[in-house]
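Batch manifest line 743
LIGAND: S-adenosylmethionine
JOB: complex structure
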Amino acid sequence: MDVHDVTDQYFQLINRQKQMLLEAKKRQGQRPSDRKSKEHLYDTFMLAFMFRAKKEGHLVHSSFIPPAYLPCTTPMTGLRPVAIKDLQLETHHRGTYLLLRSITPPSRMTAIMAIMEDENGDAIMLQLYQQEDESARAAADIVDVGTILLVKEPYFKVMGDGEYGLRVDHVSDVIHLKSDDARIPTAWQPQLMEIDRSAESLKIEGNLAFEESRYWDAITAYSDALGQPATTNEIEIIKRNRSLAFIKTKQFDAALSDAGFPDFNFNPNPPEKAMFRAAEALYNLQKFSECCQVLELLCTNFPHNSQASMVLTRAQSRFLEQKTGVYIFKELQAKAKKLRPPHLDHATYIGPVEKKQTESKGRGLFVTKAVKAGDLLLCEKAFGHAHADKGAGDGNKSSSQISLLLNPETNQGVMGAQADLIKLIVQKLYHNPSVASAFTALYHGNYEGVTTSAVDAEPMVDTFLVERIISFNGFGCPVSSLTSHTEACDQYSTPAEKPTEQEAHHSCGIWTHASYINHSCISNARRAFIGDMMIVRASRDMEAGTEINFWYHNPDGISEKDLQKKLKHWGFVCGCAICLDARMTDAAVVTKRQKLREDLKQGFSSPVLHLIRTKKIERLLDLLNQTYTQPAEDVPRLLLWDPQLALARIYAAQNKAGKSIESVGKVLTSLGFVVVGADPSPTRFAIVRWGLLVDRLVETFLHARTAFAAIGAREDSERAEGYARTTFKIIVGEDSSFHTTYK
Ligand SMILES: C[S@@+](CC[C@H](N)C(=O)[O-])C[C@H]1O[C@@H](n2cnc3c(N)ncnc32)[C@H](O)[C@@H]1O
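JOB STATUS: finished
ARTIFACT:
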């Protein structure tokens, strides 16, 4: 993940956590004799609960990923009960389950916590991780006073504060029991029997909960109703109602099934509502073709349903995007600017690409036909996207959105919305198993998860597999590459001084198709973002069958050693020509280059006469150029192009068109381009071979446009503008904002 890596800053914290884990491990298997009484745990928890409630909203979350363990794969019938008093520290109690009842309300930190008791009256702190956000589902919906649940294969451990507790990382390891479940002990059963538990009264209860936006309660009531005797007609109505509640809670697989899709229960004239629910679910599952089919039938059978025809128009637009890759990018930019989180209602387009095995990088993505620089390869909606406001973590009021995620097992520390992304994807997989395989098929290193995806007919999600996949495949992203492009170019104020800090993104996501693209510093594609859409365009012309590569981390402005450090957690060392050349370069040459860049910096800031100054700069650039031995088209000269551009800028300001064009040609050559006509000769200006696509290339081509125009080479000027526009399109993802950005 190319997000804000803070491993170095939090090295000590990671080490401290490792030490704590080692200490805790020494107690493995112990049955602690100093467990606190139920009363003590209750009092302490409630005090902290009240104190925390007052401070709510100003929490900066930090969390440690514990050593990975597998979710429970044993069916309930194969598990035996265990009691709190029998739990052993630092142990996963495989083959058992613990029956618990909550004696406190929940407290939400990184996990949802509550004090639970067992049948013997012993109590324990329970921590439930990876649950939905408060905005999606209130913590009290998950656990509250009186909630009875089963924890499968409980993990008993020493917690951060030295107390003992249960930690549950896999959402499928907890089963909530309904009030009539036979496993509930008599003493915990409700004293008063409810009067009316008929399907009809439960349906009404569900409807009421739905009207009050208590969708989870509505689902429980409808599900209870379906457990009671009812006519076929009643069952269908309850299911249709539940289907809508499933849609509201993003459980689209279940919504589709409740709507009766695909055969609508063999009904040749499916009910209007059933079709509408199915269409909504299909839309959200991005199945636009099937969605259009259902809506077309709905509009034919019920021509007065204006909402259906509106949704059909929307679904048709998505279907068209999916088929053709034609988007109204201006609209996408406008939506990304306005929406928070910037999740856009648009479809994924998969261009001329296919997944194949590479020789040494695992699987990769290849073009299936010849493409030109600028061509669209992918325009992909994120499978999951977690947004963190820019500036979050800087002490402003958005700071609660940012978190620190530390993994002592992989020695990694990242700052941003990753913790949210893990949670979000765990929930998506848990609630929509039909989409899981696109995610679980992604690269996950040597992590060996479970081979099954369901237990007791319920989906099973391995949180640690999700974390591993995100770590290897996630990308940090700006809200819009248009903004980051303009910011990157504005930042470049001092000539010959590369910006040292590359932008660290706090928002992040997973794009399951783009995830097959391997890294190379000498890339032939670039990714851009508009909201949660990733746009991948070719940055060079490619033959059919070429492997697509983009850089995971920009190689410009960073030493080879630091770059490998950034790439380390992906588990490979870049073997591209730039990196190999850097490794072979003598230390004396490195020092010489540094010295020349220092001299150039001084040269640019020198107040001496222009002519003397540019002459000196030319000489220094020439010396710097001579330090490279490999042809620039094989090994781009990353320390040369930016001072060369600074010189082109000076010539442009001095209206020295010829010199400006010559400098532009040198910028392009140092970036690995092969160009012709970058001089006042009659040869037409053209790119024979594209090179590295840095942000300031747009400016470079625009200098050429102006200079060619000044010498009356109109055609060359137009061509230079065309290249500027193509470059902009590759970097930003689209070119509809080209003229407003570069007036
Ligand atoms: C996002 S995945 C890319 C797809 C992956 N190759 C696969 O088989 O699914 C990232 C992983 O691909 C591999 N990879 C990517 N670029 C590589 C490179 N330049 N050299 C070697 N391995 C690379 C590494 O294992 C990395 O962790």
